[in-house]
Design brief:
ten-stranded mixed beta sheet, Purple Acid Phosphatase, chain A, domain 2, Immunoglobulin-like, alpha+beta, 510 residues, binds fe (ii) ion, 17% helix, 9 helices
Amino acid sequence: MKRRDFIIRTVSGLAAAQVPAPLVAGARFSGNPFTLGVASGDVTEHSVVLWTRLAPEPMAADGGVKQGVVPVRWELSPDADMRQVIRQGETTALPRFAHSVHVDIRGLEPGREYWYRFFVASHASEPGRTKTLPPANGHPESVRFATASCQNYTHGYFVAYDHLLADNPDFVIHLGDYIYDTSFGQTFRKHDAERAPVTLTDYRRRHALYKTDKHLQRAHGRLPFFSAIDNHDAIKDLDPAGLTQRAAAYQAWYEHMPVRGYGGPGSNQFQLRRNLRLGDLAQINLLDTRQFRDKQVPCRDDDGPTYGFGNYRIRCAEMFNEERSMLGKAQEWWLKKNIITNRAAWNVIASTSPFSPFRFYIGEKTLNYVGGWDAYPANRKRIIDAINQAPANAGHPIILSGDLHSFWVIDGAQSTAAADRIPAVEFVTSSITAGWPEPMARPVTDNLARNPQVKFHEPHRRGYLLHEVTATEWQTTARAVNDVKNAQSGAFDLARFIIGKGEPGFKQIL
Ligand SMILES: [Fe+2]
């Protein structure tokens, strides 16, 4: 087969329906086309998505490629020196996907490390490393992974990732706010524009800027990621007025992430929920809490006083409407089925936003945080019912979340109000850099005494959570960065928590 025929036949299904742009056989670039690094993600026991994007000038609208379809070659090896190539192929970087490349490799060995690299014209990328998940029917002794969220470029360096990488996790779960639409007025590092992104070009620039952070690049180049979308990644929920903008945000997010499931240009469909199977050790249900959720703020502004920039709102009747949904019907059904049928030791829900109830009080009035599940109590109740109805061998429930730019550990069984009780411990990771402004932090601190389920709360530290899981014990360490404004900053263990399988609550051991 001629080279050109081969390339056209291997153009992805999404592109094949279109008239192909001119193919550039002898592509030339003004500089290194791999300025945004390489990445892997969406790993299963047998597969991985490898990613890169050609962008010799990352902040240019076209990434500086200035060409049509560009052939890109890739290689996969079991060794870091890449001498033994076990798989290789050629794909195409298309202008309509900002010359991003997604290679979905199947038929790999479970629980194995692999190395990969890309070639285009006379350029080779740095080698990347990835690792498949343990065999679905296997008995892994332990799994180690990290949860991270909320990285605002303007608030500091993503230096937390250097420490996360040194902790040697098997994979990373990113719980959203991978990019920020706004600096909130901070100027430590400047965004490409002060105006929030609206168009596809805007979102591409913002993602390219974030991907130039070397700490983030190093982590992507060594660890597979699973990623969720939250409010700052694609600012609109299921709001018809925002669908064009959301489609632009989804496309740029896809173009910069090692993921599957994208519905295609202009589409508002992105299959983002994931069920991670870690042998008989754990299943992790990574939720899509944004694509299908009903309006976040159901209560009118004049229903009562709001504070925390309108994020804490009086509990109006509409908030408790039985029909209100965070997940949409199909995803709720999927989650409940997974919770009940799980037979792994740990039964995990990973949500962008906090799951457990927290009540704010102003005088006699009670307020809820509308950024999380407190704005969707009926949907949450149906999930809690599924946890309670699951058989005894359905695994120990654990909840992981982010969004709050602060570390929390919540023992849901300790809520004062019976209606708020949850049979699970929730670990909320802090942000990689994003600050937690006083108007958001103060109402939490002021109400901690009336929310005894919150057993640990640290609002001032940035960082991530490291989880080490065996069949009998779940251990979570809050890893805090000393100073996000120092690119060489150290990090330390802020606190460590242990849960014994089948035992209530948790113990803090550091
Ligand atoms: Fe955030």
